[in-house]
Design brief:
The structure is a single chain. The protein is of the alpha+beta class and 141 residues long. Helix content is 28%, strand content 40%. It has 3 helices and 9 strands, in the order E-E-H-E-H-E-E-E-H-E-E-E. Strands 1, 2, 7, 8 and 9 form a 5-stranded antiparallel sheet that branches. Strands 3, 4, 5 and 6 form a 4-stranded antiparallel sheet that branches. Strand 8 and strand 9 form a beta hairpin. Helix 1 packs parallel to helix 2.
Length: 141
């Protein structure tokens, strides 16, 4: 199982494990989607949105990447599936670019999820371990 919900005294926490940074960002987005809607498999790829983020740490990059998903839902009522995020490191900066595909949120098809206010910085961690990457993040609901 690439991600699992972790008991936390407040909010919702996730630990994500993946073999690559691309897979780590994909699985982190899937974890977030599992909270935003009950039926992410019902999302139809009828429109595209490109996400591009830059940060000095992988933690900040993951925070900004997931925050973009929350913003798209809050601001435009749109829900997206992850593409193949291209995570790169150059100099002192990390970047991620992803082409998301999705549609307008339809609660009758997608189900009612939790309203996520933000990805918190508390406990946020991204690390490389032998043969894989691990992320931990908390969602403020």
């Amino acid at each position: 199982m690439p991600f699992r919900a972790v008991d936390h005294t407040a909010d919702l926490a996730f630990e994500v494990v993946a073999p690559t940074l691309t897979a780590l960002f994909q699985e982190s987005a899937r974890a977030l989607l599992s909270v935003l809607v009950e039926h992410p498999e019902a999302i139809q790829p009828v429109k595209e949105h490109e996400v591009a983020c830059a940060a000095s740490t992988l933690e900040d990059l993951l925070h900004d990447y997931l925050s973009e998903w929350i913003f798209l839902l809050d601001a435009y009522g749109e829900i997206y599936l992850p593409g193949e995020p291209a995570v790169q490191h150059s100099g002192e900066m990390w970047t991620v670019m992803d082409r998301l595909r999705g549609e307008r949120l339809d609660p009758s098809r997608h189900g009612e999820g939790h309203h996520v206010k933000s990805v918190t910085y508390h406990g946020l961690n991204v690390e490389r371990t032998p043969g894989q990457y691990r992320a931990f993040f908390i969602l403020d609901v």
